[in-house]
Design a protein that fits this description.
heterodimer, A: 696 residues, mainly alpha, two-stranded antiparallel ribbon, 32 helices, B: 2 strands, globular
């Protein structure tokens, strides 16, 4: 097995090589590369496939009990400071490698169908490959600096991919928002990393945790300071895993193509935050204040995400808020010390959420045939309905995903969510109550989504709704006009332009719309079916009866012998029963409102207007940030520029010797002999040197 | 021929200058012969430098190498003495590299090509001279000499306000260099012996008061060049008016002269004064980072935006220098090299964009990404490098400065915390202005007016080649920083050791006698 470990670095390098080759090809031989579209795609997919095979082999070897393997080399050095980089393969890494490669593999296959007509097809594959490489690099990182390196790189890939359709204004804004918001988190991560290094003198996770514990114990470092350091580090995951208050970028990130939403903004990159908390667990476990902050952040995020998802009409935005909510669960689990439960949920969620997103992509793909390539129309659930008849495979897989996320046994989500809730109940019943309530809301909004999309009658051809949606979209664009954006007068024109531009851009016209959506091609449905299998079954790895998962993944400081299997029925039954119960209540409510239409949702919304608006406006986070941060920073920047122009430049221009010679300079400027003046200055200086040389 | 005795550096400095003198005699009607001639001269010179570095330079030696010293004007004690150590060598190589690429970037220049290339080659030699000379007087001459080509390049080939910008540039820099002259002469004449030799000046034992005054003088001169707030205002004007190749030289090399000279003179020759001035440098560095980032964000002109971003990045050089750690100083050096590459690439791309859009105002651009995807891709990559994306050189340099300063034992904890937090705010501000810039140029729907009136063709192979040449070292350093750091490591360690020596001696004196007004040293609270 040893050679396999020695060459494990090849896992992130393979997709990197693919991205480099295709990327350079695009820059140098653009036409030729774009002609061999399929060839490039097959090349990239097979490189990732190879990485996937090695990842599975590593996982197998780890399961067989191979000890963790680390390989390092000296990366940077100055004086007695040495910084090493390298890779490490342990249980956690092996699991993450498999999750990332499998999801990425299926998403890449799916991409072939979804992006078939896009002129950026090859570029998209290059980006996907670059992202996979960065993400794989992240999970094999042996120390915090290397995590930070790849952390930023996945952020950049996310930026590139959200802005993939760069001629859409919304995408342009969204990608910048994502990057900057993530940088705010990275700011904390960087500071925390520096502080921890200052205190412990190392970037290695376990040594860092041990030394920090020693320092706090011996009183050399106050517990408050240690907590502050840990919370600073946690800011990184807050941004990357879309936790409140830095979650605002994730829903907007849905402007990217759907395969990206599935791979990056649901299954892998956003889970990197949870992964980092797991890696930093040796540090966090000694700092109770920090773990409390983590747990509460997770719980609040889970709740806000779920309550916002309830009123979303854009199918992808709804899923995005649900991702945020589920990430909240994972973070909360990490916070209450349910290490393996949190990671278990990461794994199950990766599969079923990737499938749900790919399913939504399939729906959008089908809808585009009817309403055209306009995200405002193709993604809106008010235009969908009854799609089960037209796209059965998508509908069934979507239903499986919905059941999984709602926590209905025996689907994957049940086992992981139940484990989290069980652990949370022991740690803090208040947190459990939030999680429990959120589970109910989750079941409600997911079934609302499913019924609105796949059941009832098809509303896609209703031009009245279409018109309304277009109007609403234009108004929204008008509202989001900021300084430097378009003028309001151009608004209507631009909206039209945007629309037209997309039509010829995508090679489709508005004119040949069909009246019915169609099922997606095999390259898209196959990954859906493939991902449905783990969404149904993977939860069985972590049942309370025989928790293979926990035996494999547990905190480094814990020792677990054998397979944990002690089931306390008096504990398991009420916990599982209550969470399934609340899920069923949510589902029943959704049935009454959206399937059998016994309750009118609009009337209900009217009755609880303030709450409805709070949810519809995403708890007003975006509006507050717009005023405080976006406009605030613009104003500050303009003021500083004013100061620079008027005061600093003014004073220095006037000050000292300049005043003496400006008159002279101007005189020469007017006669156009400034060059001559320079020579005089130079001559005078030279003379001065000579004189001082002789007199000295 | 014995290669050890061959005057490598003198040859490298004089060859472009001599070659430039031949330009007026080259028969040339359309400027095409001259540009090829200059490019070949630039390349040969770069090859000479690389060869000398490869065969004659020992990276583990902290001392001066490739030394040549000839008496020039005996009565003055003026000697032609050149040499290279860890501080000079990376910057000499950078100069050769960037200058050659700048000549390649000058292809579109059609106005007075002979004079243009003459000046470019003259500057090539002058810049190498600044980094190589080891004589105070000669340094001053070189420093002044290199101003004239810049002045002319700005005032003849610049934009609309070129004369104003050029005059401002010359007044600032020449004004600043008076301080070099005064401080330099004072140091040369101090004590029993009169010497202009830098290595002998280092060994002189200056009293503290003298050191402080000389340090302040140098700081003003080099602060103009680097630039340091509030002496920076010439830079946006000069950069706003310069053409792309001049821009590359200004940002890529000229700014680094300030940083180089600060380390060479202020840190090496006046270590005691540095102990007192270091906190000021740190504060100025932080101001540079945040202040310039904010002004850059508010700028509506592309060139001025990038110009301010250069100022912002130079803040890290100041913080690194003042950290009293190997890592910090190493980071400062790396930041200079890295910014030389990144700054040059960004300014080149700004020039390339301007050649097509014929406007620098961001509001008049928009949506050009579809017409110019290659420029878009390259611009994005270089902006990512500039905002310190890991995997590229800027990140390593900034990380080294951060870690170096955070672990420094020369400052109190509170001071360090405030500085690190404020400097890290720059980490948030940089992407804000760079990504907004990208968004306004390339993203969104196409700007109708622009598309109709200008011919937006994509990058030509020459432009791709220039950027590729710059990106290779940027990414190379990002992946494996030791590529560059090992060139100067021995030297920066020696410099830091000297500085720490001064630091601890002064700190001890302070505890014994009355505390001085500035208290740089405070015992670390946790080790």
């Amino acid at each position: 097995m040893e050679p396999m470990y020695e060459y494990a670095w090849i896992i992130p390098v393979l997709p990197l090589a693919g991205a480099m080759i295709i990327g350079l090809g695009l820059l140098s031989f653009n036409k030729a590369i774009n002609q061999v579209r399929k060839g490039s795609a097959v090349f990239i997919v097979s490189l990732l496939g190879a990485a996937m095979v090695i990842s599975f082999a590593l996982l197998w070897s780890q399961i067989q009990g191979h000890p963790p393997y680390t390989q390092m080399f000296e990366w940077a050095a100055a004086g007695d400071f040495r910084l090493k980089m390298g890779y490490t393969v342990d249980h956690l890494t092996a699991m993450m490698l498999v999750i990332v490669t499998t999801v990425a593999f299926f998403v890449m296959i799916y991409t072939d169908g979804y992006m078939a007509h896009d002129p950026g097809y090859v570029r998209f594959y290059a980006y996907l490959s670059l992202f996979s490489s960065s993400m794989l690099g992240l999970v094999v990182s042996p120390n915090l600096v290397q995590v930070y390196v790849f952390w930023e790189l996945v952020g950049m890939c996310s930026y590139l991919l959200i802005g993939f359709w760069y001629d859409r204004k919304a995408a342009a804004d969204a990608c910048q928002k994502a990057f900057v918001t993530n940088r705010v988190g990275d700011f904390g991560l960087l500071l925390g990393m520096l502080a921890l290094f200052w205190a412990t003198g190392t970037f290695e996770f376990e040594a860092m945790g041990e030394r920090l514990a020693d320092l706090v114990e011996s009183g050399a470092l106050s517990a408050g300071l240690a907590a502050l350091f840990a919370i600073l580090v946690f800011l990184g995951p807050v941004a990357k895993s879309a936790q409140v208050p830095l979650h605002v970028w994730l829903p907007d990130a849905m402007e990217g193509p759907t395969p990206i939403s599935a791979l990056i903004h649901a299954a892998t990159m956003v889970a990197a935050g949870v992964f980092l908390i797991a890696r930093m667990y040796p540090v966090f476990e000694h700092v109770p204040t920090a773990t409390n902050v983590i747990a509460w952040t997770g719980a609040v995020t889970a709740f806000i995400g779920a309550t916002t998802a309830v009123t979303q009409n854009d199918i992808k935005k709804g899923l995005a808020y649900s991702t945020m909510s589920q990430l909240g669960y994972m973070v909360m689990a990490m916070g209450v010390g349910a290490y393996s439960a949190g990671l278990f949920h990461l794994m199950t969620h990766a599969y079923f959420k990737a499938m749900l997103f790919l399913g939504s992509g399939s729906v959008i793909h089908g809808m585009e045939a009817v309403v055209g390539h306009d995200p405002a129309l193709a993604q809106d659930m008010r235009l969908m309905g009854g799609l089960r008849k037209y796209m059965p495979v998508t509908a069934i897989t979507f239903l499986i995903g919905t059941l999984a996320i709602c926590g209905i046994p025996p689907f994957a989500g049940f086992w992981s969510k139940d484990e989290i809730l069980g652990a949370t109940f022991i740690a803090n019943p208040a947190l459990w109550a939030i999680g429990w309530l959120t589970a109910g809301i989750t079941a409600f909004y997911m079934f609302r989504m499913y019924f609105n999309t796949f059941e009832g009658g098809f509303r896609g051809t209703d031009t009245e709704i279409q018109k309304q949606l277009k109007l609403a979209q234009m108004q929204k664009m008008g509202l989001s006009l900021g300084p430097g954006a378009m003028n309001p007068q151009e608004l209507t024109l631009d909206a039209e332009l945007d629309h037209d531009a997309h039509n010829d851009h995508d090679g489709h016209g508005n004119h040949h719309h069909s009246s019915e959506p169609h099922e997606s091609p095999v390259s898209m449905t196959l990954p859906l079916v493939a991902l449905a299998v783990p969404s149904m079954l993977i939860g069985l790895l972590g049942t309370p009866f025989a928790n293979y998962f926990e035996a494999f993944i547990h905190p480094p400081s814990e020792v677990i012998e054998g397979i944990p299997s002690e089931v306390d029925w008096s504990e398991f039954l009420p916990m599982a029963g209550s969470s399934v119960g609340v899920g069923l209540i949510g589902i029943s409510l959704a049935v009454l409102m959206y399937l059998s239409r016994k309750i009118d949702p609009a009337a209900l919304a009217q009755q609880i207007k303030p709450l409805y608006n709070l949810s519809l406006n995403k708890w007003y986070f975006d509006d507050i940030y717009e005023v405080v941060f976006v406009q605030g920073s613009r104003r500050l920047a303009r003021q500083v520029l004013e100061v620079d122009l008027r005061i600093v430049d003014g004073i220095v221009n006037l000050a000292g010797f300049v005043t003496l010679v400006t008159g002279e300079a101007l005189k020469y400027l007017e006669t156009g002999r400034a060059q001559f003046y320079v020579l005089i200055v130079f001559g005078a200086v030279l003379g001065l040197v000579l004189i001082s040389g002789i007199t000295g | 021929m014995n290669t050890t005795d061959f005057p490598w550096l003198t040859t490298a400095i004089l060859f472009p200058i001599v070659a430039a003198l031949a330009i007026p005699f080259i028969p040339d009607k359309d400027g095409k012969t001259v540009r090829w001639y200059s490019l070949v001269v630039g390349l040969i010179d770069f090859v000479i430098l690389v060869y000398a570095f490869y065969t004659q330079y020992d990276m583990s030696n902290p001392g001066l190498q490739l030394v040549e010293s000839y008496t020039w004007v005996e009565t003055l004690g003026l000697r032609w003495s050149v040499g290279a150590d860890g501080l000079s060598m990376p910057l000499i190589l950078l100069t050769g590299f960037i200058s050659t690429l700048a000549i390649l970037a000058s292809w579109p220049v059609t106005l007075k090509p002979k004079l243009f290339y003459f000046l470019m080659l003259a500057m090539y030699g002058g810049q190498l001279g600044v980094f190589a000379v080891q004589d105070m007087l000669l340094f001053f001459l070189m420093w002044e000499l290199e101003l004239i080509p810049v002045y002319l390049l700005l005032s003849i080939w610049g934009g609309k306000k070129r004369l104003y910008a050029a005059t401002k540039f010359i007044l600032y820099t020449a004004g600043g260099s008076l301080f070099i002259l005064l401080a330099g002469l004072a140091m040369a004449f101090y004590g029993d012996t009169v010497t202009f030799d830098m290595r002998e000046i280092i060994n002189k034992d200056f009293p503290l008061r003298f050191q402080l005054i000389a340090y302040a003088g140098f700081l003003i001169a080099y602060g103009v060049k680097l630039p340091i707030f509030p002496l920076h205002t010439w830079l946006p004007d000069a950069h706003g008016e310069a053409t792309a190749p001049v821009h590359m030289l200004l940002a890529g090399i000229l700014l680094k002269m300030g940083g180089y000279a600060l380390i060479r003179m202020n840190l090496e020759m006046l270590p005691d004064a540095h102990v007192y001035f270091a906190p000021i440098l740190v504060i100025l560095g932080v101001v540079n980072i945040i202040y310039a980032a904010l002004t850059s964000f508010a700028q509506r002109s592309l060139k001025r935006k990038i110009a301010y971003s250069s100022i912002s990045h130079m803040g890290f050089v100041l913080i690194g220098m003042a950290s009293f750690t190997d890592l910090g100083l190493s980071g400062a050096m790396l930041q200079m090299v890295s910014h030389g590459l990144i700054g040059a690439s960004l300014f080149f791309l700004v020039g390339a964009t301007y050649d097509r859009t014929h406007t620098l105002i961001l509001d008049e651009m928009g949506g050009v990404g579809r017409k110019m995807p290659k420029i878009f891709a390259m611009f994005t990559t270089c902006s990512m490098a500039s905002l310190a994306l890991p995997g590229m050189s800027g990140f390593v340099a900034e990380l080294m400065v951060f870690v170096g300063f955070a672990t420094s034992d020369a400052y109190s904890l509170t001071f360090k915390v405030i500085v690190v937090i404020l400097a890290a705010v720059g980490v948030i501000l940089t992407p804000i202005y760079l990504l907004s810039m990208l968004r306004e140029i390339f993203y969104g729907p196409e700007n109708k007016e622009l598309v109709e009136h200008e011919i937006l063709i994509d990058a030509e192979p020459r432009e791709v080649f220039v950027i590729a040449c710059l990106l290779i070292p940027i990414i190379g350093i990002g992946f494996y920083p030791k590529l560059v750091t090992q060139i100067y490591d021995a030297k920066t360690i020696a410099v830091t050791a000297e500085l720490r020596d001064s630091l601890f001696t002064l700190a001890e004196q302070q505890t014994r006698s009355r505390p001085l007004a500035l208290q740089p040293m405070q015992a670390p609270s946790l080790q």
